[in-house]
Structure to design on (936 residues):
């Protein structure tokens, strides 16, 4: 039932809006609303019950193992939430003077410094609001850098075929042509293809390392050399930073600009698809182009640096200073972990991933890159299973839901057929991983003994397989009274 | 080890299964030269008790002020139920609803959100939200250019929030799009159609129309919308959703209505929180739905014919279309929209209208009091919603400093953005201000002026 269907004309919550109806004065008639908007008319209890029930229809980290590859679904510590929601932090207006926000700004400054250290970059700006915006900012800086040198012949961004879709989409938004390069049989970028692709037209390369194939690009230092030699810059997509946190710094791999998904590596909530937060880090040559604002510490006072101090800045990408509350959560998380805890993140993410890969392999699943170490994730391919039983990666994913597990990422990266990208994250215990392997084994058996059971999954979720084609053909995006 | 459950025994069993002797061995594909990994500038870990104390001290350092700043972020009362429900783990710790059957809670909520936003803006459809109001406006500009095809010019009144204007420039400039700024009327504070004709001689893709505008003034939206349409351009509305409880929705502006409506969703149950996370909203006419960026939720049926919800029109998006996507965006602000939907369910139409009306009335009442202070004047004559620009007989910077010393944030100094207004500030009094607050503010302002 939709909230609108609980609605009764005239029902309302008296204590949560003004007791009287104030007079509206001086607004011309043509600017005044004629009919009220379609908002539910329900009691507080109706609303609480409705949305509590809706929440119960979600899988989440707090309720299920959620091994969604490339998304780093680690536990979100509760302290990060409750301390970021202290009254004073919530009440602070974004345009309030810096002097009234020294406590908040101190957290931001320290987070900036910690992120610089962790990534090996010379500067960090905290404001990007999501990974894709971090990318947009990073590629804009690369563009600004070339333009500042009068180097206008650079029109191409190189992207490996295993990259996230945001990489090519971002390059295009920044006015670049995308050149895609293939992956070799071991899952590394094809170096010959890279050498053939670079030239005076190359503005930069976007790379995720470890890649979305779940392996560390061994040739990263050489790639960096090849791109830098032709005058291009290197962009690091930090989607998989969790795999190398405290082990390798992107700056040491030769990257000029990076983004860090705080909602992945630094455990800020995914929130059903946002808010994200993706600070960008830059090498010294890109410092003049950083987006604003950036926090500075001067004479014992924290303040924002703006276009005045960074005149070549690519500008502002958010109305205020990005997702401040998310940044506070990340700050609390890094203080809880400390340096030693941060080293452990990658270690245990790798331990869990390699263990799960070994156990699934023993259980009869085909590993896409069996001769490689898993990073914090790895790929299972169900190509043979599909050929022998007709059961697809999609079917297995849906059957996992019946068994109480969120499905791994499926059909991404696009170059491995019938793939499942599995990322367990460091916060899961061995028992959970073992139970997941047992569930996968059961599904494998079912695929042979009762393939229809798997193909028609899920069976136990609030709804069964939904018709995506119908959704796109017969668009129903808003509820209307008569459609009830 | 914080947040890591492994026992010594687990580690040994797991390594044995992998066939490795140490955890370090799992990193043996990484060239040794790259393994630096020391973190000198990261402090040692703290316990939850220690971090709690640290954060409390930081929060107390910032304190609380009586706030009269608006300028795109507005203080409204947020019912307790909003964030208690929003931070339930099932909403807080779930991901983008790719597995629809395991995400019906978030998906249905987003469908309800889309319904409310479409109705509030008077539009046919809404997406599932954008990063914030400023970036939503930039995306609307890109959308207008995509759908217009022949022009890459956007007309942007200078009554649009100055930071929104710079965000739009930063986002669209790499695509060869021209943002042309339009003058405002010095008397009324509005964008006047008469002043626009010279800018309409050359083709343009869209006219941006703020309501209320940055000065808190209401624009003549009907005339502006019709003017844009007469020039074969789109009308992009930038609106405060709270104001739409009492103001004509963009879908009813002029003869045909605005084509796209965007804005900052923060007033709908999102705390000020130093500027974020907030959410942007975007709603549009049916004809433009396939040009919309961001997530869109659709209702469909399952194998048994039961109603359910999915992400739809994904063929527009980066994970399918890659370099040909409508935008690189892949998140919405899911958790913020969760809060906003619960907020709107608790206020209902009458509650929202009362909050908007009270905010309007409080600002008018404050303005009346302030105009009795020596040398304080309302600058613009145009009708206003819940914010206004006043001129001061002393430098705004000093007046604001004096007020701050008495724990009042008196408004936003406009000298950075509109130096031509002289000593001026933008002031807002929402429903959260009592008449005693207005009295207190007026008295302190008068004192501050006297002492300067």
């Amino acid at each position: 039932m939709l909230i609108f269907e609980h609605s009764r004309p005239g029902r309302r919550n008296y204590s949560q809006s003004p007791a009287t109806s104030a007079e509206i004065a001086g607004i011309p008639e043509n600017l005044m609303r004629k009919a009220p908007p379609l908002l539910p008319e329900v009691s507080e209890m109706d609303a609480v019950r409705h949305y509590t029930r809706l929440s119960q229809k979600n899988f989440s980290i707090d309720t299920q193992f959620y091994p969604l590859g490339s998304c780093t679904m680690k536990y979100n510590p509760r302290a990060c939430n409750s301390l970021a929601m202290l009254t004073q932090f919530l009440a602070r207006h974004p345009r309030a003077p810096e002097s009234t926000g020294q406590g908040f700004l101190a957290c931001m400054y320290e987070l900036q410094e910690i992120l610089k250290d962790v990534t090996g970059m010379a500067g960090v700006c905290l404001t990007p609001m999501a990974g894709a915006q971090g990318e947009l900012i990073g590629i804009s800086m690369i563009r600004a850098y070339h333009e500042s040198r009068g180097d206008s012949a650079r029109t191409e961004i190189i992207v490996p075929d295993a990259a996230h879709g945001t990489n090519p989409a971002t390059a295009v938004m920044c006015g670049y042509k995308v050149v895609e390069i293939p992956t070799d049989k071991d899952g590394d970028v094809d170096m010959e293809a890279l050498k053939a692709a670079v030239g005076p037209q190359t503005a930069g390369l976007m790379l995720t390392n470890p890649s979305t194939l779940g392996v560390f690009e061994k040739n990263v230092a050489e790639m960096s050399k090849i791109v830098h030699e032709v005058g291009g810059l290197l962009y690091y997509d930090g989607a998989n930073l969790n795999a190398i946190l405290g082990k390798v710094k992107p700056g040491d791999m030769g990257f000029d600009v990076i983004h860090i998904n705080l909602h992945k590596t630094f455990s800020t909530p995914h929130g059903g698809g946002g808010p994200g937060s993706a600070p960008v880090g830059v090498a010294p040559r890109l410092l003049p182009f950083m987006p604003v604002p950036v926090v500075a510490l001067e004479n014992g006072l924290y303040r924002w640096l703006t276009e005045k101090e960074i005149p070549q800045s690519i500008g502002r990408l958010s109305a205020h200073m990005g997702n401040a509350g998310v940044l506070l959560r990340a700050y609390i998380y890094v203080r809880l972990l400390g340096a030693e805890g941060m080293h452990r993140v990658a270690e245990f993410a790798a331990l869990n991933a390699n263990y799960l890969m070994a156990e699934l392999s023993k259980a009869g699943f085909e590993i896409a890159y069996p001769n490689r170490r898993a990073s914090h994730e790895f790929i299972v391919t169900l190509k043979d299973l599909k050929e022998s039983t007709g059961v697809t990666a999609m079917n297995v994913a849906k059957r996992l839901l019946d068994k109480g597990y969120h499905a791994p990422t499926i059909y991404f990266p696009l170059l491995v057929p019938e793939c499942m990208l599995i990322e367990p994250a460091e916060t899961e215990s061995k028992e959970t991983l073992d139970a997941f392997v047992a569930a996968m084994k059961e599904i494998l058996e079912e695929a042979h003994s009762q393939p229809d059971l798997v193909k028609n999954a899920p069976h136990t979720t609030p709804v069964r397989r939904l018709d995506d084609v119908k959704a796109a053909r017969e668009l129903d995006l808003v509820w209307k009274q008569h459609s009830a | 080890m914080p947040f890591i459950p492994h026992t010594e025994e687990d580690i040994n069993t797991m390594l044995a299964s992998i066939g490795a002797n140490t955890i370090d061995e799992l990193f043996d594909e990484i060239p040794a030269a790259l393994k630096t990994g020391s973190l000198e500038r990261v402090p040692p870990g703290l316990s939850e008790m220690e971090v709690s104390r640290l954060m409390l001290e930081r929060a107390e350092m910032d304190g609380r002020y009586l706030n009269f700043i608006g300028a795109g972020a507005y203080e409204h009362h947020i019912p307790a139920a909003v964030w208690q429900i929003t931070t339930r783990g099932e909403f807080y710790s779930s991901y983008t609803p790719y597995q629809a059957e395991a995400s019906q809670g978030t998906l249905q909520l987003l469908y309800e959100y889309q319904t409310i936003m479409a109705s509030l803006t008077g539009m046919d459809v809404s997406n599932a939200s954008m990063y914030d109001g400023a970036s939503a406006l930039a995306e609307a500009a890109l959308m207008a250019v995509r759908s217009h095809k022949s022009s890459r010019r956007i007309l942007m009144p200078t009554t649009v929030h100055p930071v929104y204007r710079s965000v739009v420039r930063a986002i669209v400039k790499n695509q060869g799009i021209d943002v042309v700024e339009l003058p405002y009327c010095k008397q009324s504070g509005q964008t006047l159609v008469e002043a626009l004709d010279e800018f309409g001689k050359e083709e343009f893709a869209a006219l941006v129309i703020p309501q209320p505008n940055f000065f808190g003034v209401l624009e003549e939206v009907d005339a502006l919308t019709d003017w844009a349409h007469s020039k074969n351009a789109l009308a992009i509305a930038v609106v405060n959703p709270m104001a739409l409880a009492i103001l004509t929705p963009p879908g009813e502006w002029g003869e045909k209505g605005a084509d796209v409506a965007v804005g900052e969703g923060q007033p709908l149950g999102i705390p000020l929180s130093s500027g974020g996370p907030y959410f942007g909203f975007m709603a549009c006419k049916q004809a433009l739905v396939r040009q919309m960026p961001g997530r869109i939720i659709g209702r469909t049926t399952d194998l048994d014919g039961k109603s359910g919800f999915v992400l739809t029109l994904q063929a527009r998006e980066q994970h399918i279309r890659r370099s040909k996507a409508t935008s690189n965006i892949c998140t919405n602000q899911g958790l913020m929209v969760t809060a906003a939907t619960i907020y709107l369910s608790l206020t209902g139409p009458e509650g929202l209208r009362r909050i908007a009306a009270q905010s309007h009335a409080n600002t008018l009442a404050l303005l009346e009091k302030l105009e009795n202070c020596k040398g304080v004047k309302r600058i613009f004559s145009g009708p206003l919603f819940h914010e206004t620009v006043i001129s001061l007989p002393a430098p705004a910077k000093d007046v604001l400093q004096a007020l701050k010393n008495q724990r009042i944030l008196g408004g936003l100094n406009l000298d950075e953005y509109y130096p031509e207004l002289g000593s001026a500030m933008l002031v807002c009094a929402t429903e959260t201000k009592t008449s005693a607050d207005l009295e207190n503010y007026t008295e302190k302002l008068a004192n501050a002026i006297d002492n300067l």
In short: Residues 66-76+350-451 of chain B form a domain with the Aspartate Aminotransferase, domain 1 fold (CATH 3.90.1150.10). The first helix of chain B runs from residue 8 to 18. Chain B touches chain A through 201 residues (CB under 8 Å).
